[in-house]
Amino acid sequence: MQDPLEDVAAELGETPGFFQLYTPNDRELAESLVRRAEAAGYAGIVVTLDTWTLGWRPRDLQHATFPQMRGECLANYFSDPVFRSRLEKSPEEDLATATITWALTFGDPTLTWDDLAWLRGLTDLPLLLKGICHPDDVRRAKEAGVDAIYCSNHGGRQAASAPALELLPGVVAAAEGMPVLFDSGVRSGVDVVKALALGATAVGVGRPYGWGIAMGGAAGAQHVLQCILAEADLTMGLNGLRTVAELGRDALIRL
Ligand SMILES: Cc1cc2nc3c(=O)[nH]c(=O)nc-3n(C[C@H](O)[C@H](O)[C@H](O)COP(=O)(O)O)c2cc1C
Predict the structure, then answer these.
(1) Tens digit of pLDDT for each residue in 81-119?
(2) pTM to 2 decimal places
(3) Which residues does ligand 1 sit against, CB inside 6 Å?
(4) CA 199 to CA 169: how far, in whole Å?
(5) Digit-coded pLDDT (tens) for 196-231
(6) How many Å separate Cα 208 from the centre of its chain?
(7) Domains of the chain
């Protein structure tokens, strides 16, 4: 979490990586981040739509957890030439001012549908919108020229009780063949199979690999992912499915 995007890209090997863009209200900074992601070899830009404002997070509030406000987890910004040009003193000299400057970069969130044209014009890399759950938004995203939809409620960390899997079929239908990535609430191989059966192109997990890291570092994360893959594989086999291409809605039973 403390590593700039270039260092993360250097560890990817053959695995394609997406760069998440929290779109700052400073457009030159946004462009700088996109250019760095291009130069570092990322396969696409994921524009996250999650944090228009923070949701109600009792555990974070209880522990006063917001590492960025302590100047942590900001390596992408502190290493950015445009961000640094906004500071009179470097983050190494004056961490508090650099941190406040970062916070203000997101202090007036102004990203709208109209801004997508600007983002689209910035880069030829595939553009993915993360946090789309409604078919109307899928259609707007398509019109704006995005390349893929990331159907997600961000793990419910914004709005409690927000559905996700239930909304996936509508998103897939509206995408009309455009790739649809999915996450939120995936905890097992069976969950992966369900999302694939409902039309997801790829399925992601958030907290589970974090729990793996907490228990056993990188090996713990690897173990969690291997367990999920193994269960997905066995579940497919138990249902007589040899490939993901054979997996469709008819694999599911509506009660
Ligand atoms: C600690 C934490 C930090 C996250 N940060 C981001 C983020 O910066 N941007 C984002 O789009 N989603 C963020 N998410 C949501 C994840 O990207 C992902 O959508 C979610 O965790 C998937 O749901 P799951 O945790 O139920 O698997 C975060 C989730 C967690 C648990």
Answers:
(1) 999 999 999 999 999 999 999 999 987 767 889 889 999
(2) 0.93
(3) 20, 48, 50, 130, 152, 154-155, 157, 183-186, 205-207
(4) 7
(5) 999 999 999 999 999 999 999 999 999 999 999 999
(6) 15
(7) 5-205 (3.20.20.70), 206-255 (no CATH)
